[in-house]
Amino acid sequence: MTASAGDGLLVAVDSRIHRLPAQVKIVALFLFVLAVVATPAAVVWAFALYAVLLVGCVVLAKLPPATVMRRMAVETPFIVFALLLPFVATGPQIEVLGLSVSESGVFGAWNVLAKGTLGVVAAIVLSATTAPRELLAGLERLRLPSTLIAILSFMVRYLSVVSDDLHRMRIARESRGYTGGRAGHLKAVAAGVGALFVRSFERGERVHLAMQARGYTGRMPQLTHSGATRNQWLEGLAISLTAFAIAVAARVVGL
Amino acid sequence: MHVPDGFFDAPTSIATGLIAAGAVGVSLQRANRELRETGPALAGLTAAFVFAVQMVNFPVGAGTSGHLLGGALAAALVGPWTAVLVMSTVLLVQGLLFADGGLTALGTNITLMGVITVIVGYFVTRALLQALPKRVGSVVPATTIGALVSVPVAALAFTGLYAVGGAVEIPIGKLATAMVGWHILVGLGEAVITAAVLSAVVATRPDLVYAARHLQKDLVLVDADGNTSTVAPDRPIAPKPAGRSLGVGVAFTFLIAGVISLFASAHPDGLEFVGAKLGFESAAKDSAVASSPLADYGVSGIGNTQVSGALAGIIGVLVTIAVGLAIAKLASIRSAARTE
Amino acid sequence: MSGPSIQVERLVFAYPDGRQALFGVDFTVEPGERVALLGPNGAGKTTVVLHLNGILGSVTGGTGSGRIRIGGTDLHREHLAEIRRKVGLVFQDPDDQLFMPTVRDDVAFGPANLGLRGSELDDRVFEALSEVGMQDHADIAPHHLSFGQRRRVAVATVLAMRPEVLVLDEPSSNLDPASRRELADILSGLDVTLLMITHDLPYALQLCERSLLIDDGRIVADGKTRDLLADPDLLSAHRLELPYGFDPLSVSGPER
Description:
heterotrimer; A: 2 strands; C: 10 helices
């Protein structure tokens, strides 16, 4: 995640999902995750259906499964937490594979894993089908405050520049024979990070000067973006609505 | 500490969502002046910096690693209001672009990592700056301690949220011990990096450190004829007097303390933990033996605990919402009064 | 336009970190002139240039004194917007200048701030990009362009504001020889007053008939570029060096 941080996430193919306006996809993602979270953990079939829906999206968006799997790694810390739950949670104990574990802990682990994983995959579908610029335009369309949009767009624009700086500094450190013990590592990282901040901050000042030089007075121009048609909304929200139907069914029908 | 979807129950997610929205709203209003002077580019670059640095891991121990959260650091460098916006932006990008932290948990994540770390870090920094010698260099130790404190406090807040809205019953005392103990180590790493960044900035561009702007020396200017004069530096966005930041800090501490006391009263383990810390081991011994996990959470006890836990949760949620809204309201009244 | 394009008198400035960069700078540039601003690292070149449209200096609350007139207009807070339209500034690092998500958005940023909208804005963007030969790259993200292309787009972002004075900070730095020549072709074809910071002395000779030499925050020489470059004592006193084998008297310059 160095040179291409941010827009390296886009899987540049053409698909129905790629073509949907970003604001539709953001709302659809949010509603989908909401439906998933609202589903009782015990209704296992509902989660199976959600998974089928998501796999359908991944296929429809022509995303390589390996890429999706690789990006799911961000979830790791909470998988560890979830796997610990059966052993630390209290309540009635049950026997699984000869181990005595907490029943509610097992359920909790399932709950965290299922909902977390579905949420992560859904978010991956969004970031893999939407260029960062589109995402910004979508958020602006969804009336996120303009100051936040401005900060966001500068962040996205300079993410790769700052990451490149960081990367170059690491190469410079390592090419001067630095191998790194534990304490030495922290010290070297810390010093590098200090220099990185001064660089980033001074760039921020220069960018602001460059903006002022071109007549900036405190209001960013609107990004050019197109509205979504009703059909696009319907198409994008179809999956979320299905998910909501599943969530309601799961509540009503139960197991 | 990026919380995924479904980790906390709906009321907790909604409540923290409201707190986060309130905090961001207030910050947007209050950061307006800072942002007008320095521009959104600076905040965006700071966000990119925090994001990049969060990808750098440092070893914590036992073969694991932690990474910088950056709330206290950002608060010292760009001011608390802008820092809340910066941290929220980072978390939004992480959630939307990198699937790091669930979307429905965005409010929780912003509250924990974007608001609590910033406010605790900045409050400690300002309080220490009052006590330390009045020069720019003092900001380094002050913020370092602020960073050190902010991480375990955020971990404690996480534990509090878990007690209120966690999906599974686990002994909260144990969780608190584990979370806080672990995050003290992470906080040490955070402190080292924070110290390094601030010393680098103080050495090269002391004028950049927001928290120390009021401590800057006057400038010496030599004019075209060689005459020397002393000029006060241009500092458009120096921090407010300590009184206000003190007030915000106190209000926030109340908020956290409220949440934690709630879970403590609902969960005997939490009380035991606090008791042990305070040195009441002997007094608590009997009950500690009697309330071994099985005794506490017998079949009949479960219903009780869940009911009381849920009650505490609801009350906690209401209190947090009320406090959050009150702070937002207060701030908006104040800023409205000022603009008139 | 009445009066000189740029008139700077007794300019003094200290940065907020306490470092004083300018100790009394005086110079004048007439309309249509092309002037190179030479000097060693840290001499104050960029600081002078950032004063010309009121980004630095007492007009925006900075610490300093002196007087600046652009096209006969005093640099005052109430004229700031007008002056910033007249003086187009191209920064040294195109990454500082190109901050919007696409080339089109970026070139449109300045004219949009001037109040242009709709098709008028689109025409202005297309015109500016055509001037630097980048009209086919409007929808690309700036960081996907080569460095030379980014530099050209940076020039276009400023041309889109139709400046009367074009100020460039080291336009030839980090360019490969072909990009360097292409940029020179673009610059020599523009009908504006030009002030150009550079370490690239042959570039100064090629594009600018006149040069200013600044060191330690003061102007130390002002004259024909060819005369300055032909004075080895002056150059070495201020840490300037001609490339190996380059003879300023043997090549043709802009003066014809």
